Amino acid sequence: MLVLYTYPAGFGQFSLSPFCVKAAALLKMSGRDWSRRDFDDPRKMPLAKLPVLNTQERLIPDSQNIRRYLESQGATFDVSLSDTQRAQSHALIRMAEEHLYFNLVLDRWGDDRVWPTIRDVYFAKVPALLRRPVADGLRRRLLRGLHTHGIARFSASERLARVEEDLRAIQICLWQGPFLMGNRPCSADLSVAPMLAAIRATPLATPLARRVAEDAQLSDYIDRLEEAVPLP
Q1: What fold characterizes domain 83-228?
Q2: What distances in angstroms separate CA 223 from CA 55, 142, 182, 218, 228, one per listed residue?
């Protein structure tokens, strides 16, 4: 049986990481038998991150690599899409994972109001006396990385305006059906909906979290995907 190594559940989500949710949804849609195993510290994993899929022959890190593996074993996620739709799906995945994601991270790790909850949930297994210094040190390194990346150089209002363009693009796609490419979930839905769900589940109502949670079209879309691809 395949085993998905994932971050634990949290904030009402299958996992604290939308990439782990994506990997679980890919496994669910593939029809393969699988189970989960939770980890808090991925440093010994390939690429030092999660999710990782244990196929019993090898460990496969990264949700996109997991998708490629499942497709090599016969899974089909975009079988009904045209070449143009496949290209659009690819672009939506990149938008969610390379832009929406970093805004989610800033909301969780960069907002001083949200950070104490994030620290105590993400680092729950670290002894209480060590939790603050360990977590705060990692936070400083992560925020420096986001500044180098460039996204942390924008103000909160500038970031929200940039995200708004992403959300409008998603909403335009949803005008044609219940999912991004029509009536059935495809690979883009398995990236976009978990990312939006994670934003909505931020444990304090930041402007970005409110923007998603209070938008009926986006919230209904998240709920539809979770109903169409239910996770254990």
Answers
A1: Glutathione S-transferase Yfyf (Class Pi); Chain A, domain 2 (1.20.1050)
A2: 30, 31, 16, 9, 9
